[in-house]
Design a protein that fits this description.
There is one protein chain. The protein has about 190 residues and is an all-alpha fold. It has one domain. The protein has 8 helices and no strands. α5 runs antiparallel to α6 and α6 runs antiparallel to α8.
Length: about 190
């Protein structure tokens, strides 16, 4: 929710700046968005959000690991989520604008690398966790839901546009749903 709130708020606050980069919410939704928000006048907030959201994802992965059985799939699923969190913090390296007159920077290269790693680690995590959730009665229904959410990723990379927004929304809702379930399971253990 933090990530979504900051991205929405900064997109509104820096709308003209983002349009100046060539971003268009309908025709070019992935052009320098959301990473380009870190280049604007309030960019420090996007940078801090990448770091904080990544650290929260790492914490989420560690907490989730405590609620899953032993085995390869739980280890792979939660390790993938933990590494995705690390990659999300790596997005704090400032991106390069797509349309620029300056050379590519080292921090822009790192940002792009961490973006790719984030997607790969999330996909690996969701495939592992989908398998875990399917076989654990406490997570009934979350296995199929996780696989469906992961399947949404494929069209978003090929189709871009609205598919990217839908995938981002699906990942954020999935994270919230898993967090709520994790909270309910941990609360039941404490009672």
């Amino acid at each position: 929710m933090l990530f979504a709130g900051v991205v929405i708020g900064l997109t509104i606050a820096q709308y003209d700046f983002m349009r100046g980069l060539g971003w268009d919410p309908i025709h070019a939704p992935t052009l320098d968005w959301p990473s380009g928000l870190s280049l604007g006048p309030y960019g420090i907030w996007m940078t801090l959000t990448f770091i904080l959201s990544g650290l929260l994802m790492v914490t989420f992965a560690l907490a989730l690991r405590t609620m899953l059985d032993e085995g390869n799939a739980p280890r792979i699923g939660t390790l993938g989520l933990l590494l995705a969190g690390c990659a999300l913090t790596g997005l704090a390296f400032t991106t390069d604008p797509t349309h620029r007159t300056t050379p590519i920077t080292w921090h822009g290269i790192l940002h792009d690398l961490f973006f790719v790693l984030l997607g790969l680690f999330l996909l690996v995590s969701m495939l592992g966790l989908g398998r875990v959730f399917k076989s654990d009665s406490r997570w009934k229904g979350f296995g199929s839901y996780t696989y469906i959410t992961a399947a949404c990723a494929i069209p978003s990379f090929a189709l871009k546009g609205i598919a990217f927004y839908l995938f981002l929304l699906a990942i954020l809702i999935w994270s919230l749903a898993i967090s709520v379930k994790l909270y309910l399971l941990s609360d039941a253990l404490l009672s």
